[in-house]
Amino acid sequence: MTDKPLILVADDETRIRRLVVESLENAGFDVCQAQDGRQAVDVFRLSPVEPDLVILDLMMPEMDGEEALKAIRKTSAVPVLILTARDFLCDKSKCFNAGADDYLVKPFSIQELELRVRALLRRTARQFMVPRGRTVVNGPLTLRSEEHDVLWRGTSVPVTDREFRLLESLASRPGAVVRYDELLRIGWGLDSDADISHLRVAVARIRKKLESISVNPAIISSFTNVGYMMGDLTSYDEDYGD
Question: For residue 60, what are the domain limits?
Fold first, then answer.
């Protein structure tokens, strides 16, 4: 498991595909690749870790980028950036209607591509965070984002800003495994050098703080090589004991 965002690049033009892959790798991303639309869908579906972002050329053999996008959208909301030499409004409209998140016309600069990739990844990370002013409630656990308060049955749990963001991400999706790379982006930011060891230390501190007020630390489960999950705490007393 890597803590770097994983990007799938699909383009039938070998020169362009290699340029994009090498540039993204040099920028610190992990990259997998495909040479046509059908292969892109297969790589996406068979990857042991779902890519964090997909870059699709529009005009490809076997299956074009639009059809590949539709196939990916059947099972995933992963951000998708379309690359194409076609700069017509009707083409852009079709791609956005099919579920594309961004559209970049060839020829393009590698610098602009990297900026768009980072912007899409930041946008995705924010989707997993609760807006300021909102309250997350998971059974006896309450998180108030405006005040950065964590309460367990009314008792305050002192946490740092980073610990709050991690708890907020887990508590807002009870029963769902949140992947390491998502938590790292939420806790430390996209350009940080933090890795899984930093995340493990942070989660251990959160568990210790919860345990200090008699909360079962097992409410946060670890899934080796994948991520962390907070259980549904609606029936906390029955499921975890108190």
Answer: 6-127
